[in-house]
Amino acid sequence: MSFVAKKKLTMFDYVNYSLLALISIVCLFPFIYVFSVSFTDPKVYIPLKFYLFPDKWSLSAYKYILSTNSFIHALKSTVFVTVIGTILNLIVSFSFAYVLTKKTLPGRKILLAAVIFTLVFNAGILPSYLLIKQLGLLNSYWSLIWPTLTSAWSLLVIKSFLESHPPELEESARIDGCTEVGVFLRIIIPLSMPAIAAFMLFFAVSHWNTYFNALIYISDSKKWTLQVLIKSLVIDSDSTGVGQAGAGGDDRIVPQETIRMAAIMLAMAPILLVYPFLQKHFAKGVMLGSVKG
After folding, report:
1. CA-CA distance, 85 to 144, in Å (whole number)?
2. What pLDDT sits at residue 6?
3. Whether pLDDT at 79 is above 90
4. What average pLDDT does range 29-41 have in this prediction?
């Protein structure tokens, strides 16, 4: 029978934990404020007042923001870009990384050099914009998907993870008559589920938070993503068509601030809901390829 000795906390530990707890509480205040204001009833809302909890709960801001065409269009755009973009990211990244693990591949060193080159050097905004324009992708959802199909960092991490698989598994599959595609689909993919879950979260969050590319490539307000819409709500809300309006069919006016906070909460909610279910795989996946042997 073994006993695990408990570590005795020192004064430094107490001070360190106290500071971390204080910083965590301070970081939570903006989220608490956004949450409270979004649920505050328009009748009792007072501008520039900090709300730890709403004085009176109400869904007026959410009912209004969900009834506006601009938010619905932005939500559809973001969901489309996130779902299609994440699926294509996973397909391209894992298939490309699998190819790079093959040392007998002709031109493998050139491909690896090209990948590493993009990790160090970037063409910049202007060449990227001109390329998207020449391809006819301006004001298209594909302008937010094609340029980000994969990245050098993702490829190198996935490649390192795939190389940790025992080569004997692939050899035995080939002896049984599997082709390279069969080995990839029947052997590599099932063994890579933790990596797939982790990178699915990475890619999905990246697409859901798409802002800058949507800002420069999408000029049609009906194709804006949620992040661009929220920027317009927070900074120049008058131009979005989402302003003060009656809510619930009565004479109440929904304040601009509660509308903004409700939009922010709705934009954060999907990621906050999905993350706990993928946290187990995420915690395992972030260490992929970091340790070998």
Report:
1. 8
2. 62
3. yes
4. 86
With CA atoms as reference, report the closest residue to 133 among 27, 253, 235, 219: 219
CA distance 121 to 79: 31
- Dist CA 255 CA 65 (whole Å): 12
